[in-house]
Amino acid sequence: MSPTEQRAGRTSNGARSTVTKAVIPAAGLGTRFLPATKAMPKEMLPIVDKPAIQYVVEEAANAGMDDVLIITGRNKDNLVNHFDGVPELEYTLQRKGDDGKLDKVHESSELAEVHFLRQGQPLGLGHAVGRARKHVGDESFAVLLGDDLIDARDPLLSRMIEVHDRDEVTVVALMEVPPESIHLYGCAAVEPTADDDVVRITALVEKPSAAEAPSNLAVIGRYVLRAEIFDLIDQLEPGRGGEYQLTDALNGLAAGRGERPVYGVIFTGRRYDTGDRADWIKANLLLGVDHDELGPELTDWVLGFTDRLRAAGGAAE
């Protein structure tokens, strides 16, 4: 039995998941990483020894989602290739008896059943999610944004699915950020619930100033959505830049235009923003020092480099 068959429909702790489909929008151009992304999708930029997109698919699979739909755009063939088999490479490694590297090659193609769909035109996150309607059908599903990596040691999706199942609601991931940073995110107006880590979302404000923000709870790139979201996406009007925003559809649900409300799960674990160049470098270092093989060497190097930076700063002073 393959790892996909063993994992299908089950979370990392073995419990059966009710949400078995994940949608990963990956049609962006990655302009903040030019020229690195001129010929390579930003989702294929490596974090230590795996492309960023693989971490996202692993997260979905570990939360019990064995059916993953990646929404792509032009020049994204590398994404398709990464999750496909590579017979020539596999044969070469097999002949050499290099089982360790062969396992790594097989790993990405055995995580889940990975499907691809072209967005067609870059008309925003709401449009990208709406393209998944025929694939998802009437089932609830998860949306994972590739720019947000959630550390596997701090599971988030499983908690979101738990809240979704218990209360039959759409669930959005939230994280506290400093007030001076809230203008970089969507921000949630919330009401408390009986659970300390769960709130009811009454409104979402896109990138407010610190003075206008209703809270310091930022929306991060994880959603567990009921299928009713598609009807609200269909009713969206284009916003800034002619794009259709998922936030606007979620606001409709929060305002009572759907059958069920919107809840938020407040995440306090480790998150890496790989859509920012500096944070992408930090993610490589933070995950690199915890890597089984590379960790000790990198830790020694980082400590030594820190000492050199301090010495240089002291000399400059």
From TrEMBL:
InterPro entries: GalU_uridylyltTrfase_bac/arc, NTP_transferase_dom. Its EC number is 2.7.7.9. GO terms for molecular function: UTP:glucose-1-phosphate uridylyltransferase activity. It holds the Pfam family NTP_transferase. It comes from the Bacteria. Residues 21-285 form the Nucleotidyl transferase domain. GO terms for biological process: UDP-alpha-D-glucose metabolic process. It is an enzyme of class 2 (transferase). Keywords: Nucleotidyltransferase, Transferase. PANTHER family: UTP--GLUCOSE-1-PHOSPHATE URIDYLYLTRANSFERASE (PTHR43197). This is UTP--glucose-1-phosphate uridylyltransferase. It comes from Leucobacter soli. The lineage of its organism: Bacteria, Bacillati, Actinomycetota, Actinomycetes, Micrococcales.
